[in-house]
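User: Hi! Is it possible to get a structure for several chains at once, not just one? Here's what I have:
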Amino acid sequence: MKKIKTNFHNLKDNICHTIKRIKTEHLISNYMKNNVLFLTFVITAVFNSTILRFFSMHMLENYLSVKAILADITVAVVIGSFGYLFKPKNRFTYLIIANIFLSAICMINSVYYTFYTSFASVSMLSLTQYIGDVGDAVVENVLQLKDIVYIIGPIVLTIVHLKLKKKNYYKKIEIKSDRKKRMLSTLGAGGILALLFLVTMSPLDVSRFAKQWNKEYIVMRFGIYIYQANDVITTIQPKINSMFGYDKAKKTFTDYFADVKEEPEKNQYSNIFEGKNVLVMHAESMQTNGIGLKFNDREVTPTLNRLTKEGLYFSNFYSQVSVGTSSDSELTYNTSLMPTKSGTAFVSYYDRTYISTPKLLKEKGYYTFSMHANNADFWNRRTMHKNLGYDRFYSKQDYNVTKENTIGLGLSDKEFFKQSITKLQKINSKNEKWYGTLIMLTNHTPFSDTEKYGDFEVNMKETITKEDGTTEEVIHPYMEGTKLGNYFKSYHYADEALGEFIEELDNANLLDNTVIVLYGDHDGRLPKADYNRLYNYDKETDGILDDEDPNYKKFDSYQYELGRKVPFLIWTKDMAGTELNKEVTNVMGMYDVMPTLGNMFGFYNKYQLGHDIFNINDKNIVVFPNGNWVTNKMYYNSQKEAYLSLSDEPITEEEIKENNEYANNLLDVSDDIIVFDLLNEDKEKEKE
Ligand code: GP9
Ligand code: MN
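Assistant: Yes, the chains can be modeled jointly so their relative placement is included. Here is the combined structure:
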């Protein structure tokens, strides 16, 4: 006890002593005097990065983001610390080179942002068409003051250096040869700053940083320097991945497709839609469980309810996304390949060869396009849509986006559809047949813009008859205030937008020769506890029913995972009541869409991993990127090595083993195709 007390006293004395020293010996001002050049370097680097955020992201919380400033200081301190390894007279040369380099990063990004409302990526350097675009951008933009302001950094540093030189400063501070020590202590300070920065990071920051798709977000939280460094690493990584293991990959690939026929198997749906226009609706976060659901007798999704009743509806359909969410679903939908095991195909493997639906339809004379009123660089779509074979990508810059018509992430779906109609009319008048994908946006997590979704209550209203015969309406909160409740409000909005859009398409005579294909891109990533409330609400207690209660419905992790189903439907104006108007309940995955549509529209990709659902029927298996899989009979969780039976049929160990092998093999082949660019015939010929 005595020892602790003495230690405490010692510590107190030490702190007091240090504070006294700082006061009496003017430690801070001395430090500043002895490190003028280094400090100028740090300040100018941070200033430039802040100015870049100021000119590009406007909002105060973006450009004065504490996290970004802390990150920039850390980077500048770490880079600047190596300057101490040089003799004082050479230190300036090192720091000015570093400063010019950092200023150049800011300048390039400033120019790039003006044109693409996004930040630059070194990966673009390998795309020749991009160099052209950016080259033009630089030339046209060169006179803008906001792009050249960054030379302030090197100018200020040079002025400070010249002044110091004049005062003979470098000779004065060359007191001791403690260069290594000074470098290490400064680097140490950089390390402490880095730790401080890491502590402030949220899980969302970490995940967005890893995915690198929302570049604005990363620059806002990590600053431009860390963004660019991360960008270099994500660009190089896939190149390294593809350097080793080519021969093995090629063999797996050849074996896998050895027995696949050159021609597709025919069935009653072959070529039924040949030559028709196609409008693909990428329905953001729409899940199957909203369909048919009602609150106080009001349907959440009246439009989808109608389309599923009138069209060809696949009610047991799964999206197969990994960390690439929206972009993964686009990839799998268009190519029948699975998302990559590391990184995302759209961001890391944008330069591989893909056999895709738009490409195959182009060969049949279609004009192909995509529309998404968001930043074109989100998920690297600007590049990937071109690579997937879309002739034209209409993005944010083609739409009139204002504060008033924005909901959540960007332009509201209603406005997006309204503005798309005129574009569609033009396309329709100029092209004999067309294939277009419209990517919706409003129904996106966190579903918090509730006041803009319109009036849709998710409470529970009850009319109670009192003893005296009069009635009273009682309102139970039910799903109000929950994330799932807000999701249904948002879903209702998106569904309404879809309904209005279909009406407008009809008014514009755009439905007469058009097939509408709709898929939910992935689930809404909603809390399991909210589903428990949805299915097991106890209005008496405003809580959850007891699990002993006869009305209690079990909702465990299996139900949650299987509940992530999304709708897939094919609809035409005149389909209701025909043979095509039916519900398909066999399990189906996003990778089965290309083969199924291919048969209907008359195109075929030999290297598709899914199946035409009308050939494989009840024998289908849907493999998920994490190795889980589902059939009509069972859902298998490969992490837990456990399954849930989905039918009365017996399950054998043998079939689990076979399906596991099938799933792993399929995931390997898919990854090999993308990483080693195995569908690139030119490259393959070179290798032979
Ligand atoms: C981004 C939008 C949403 O433009 O498509 O992407 P997500 O977060 O769903 O992957
Ligand atoms: Mn999405």
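The first strand starts at residue 277 and ends at 283. The radius of gyration is 30 Å.

User: Great, thank you!
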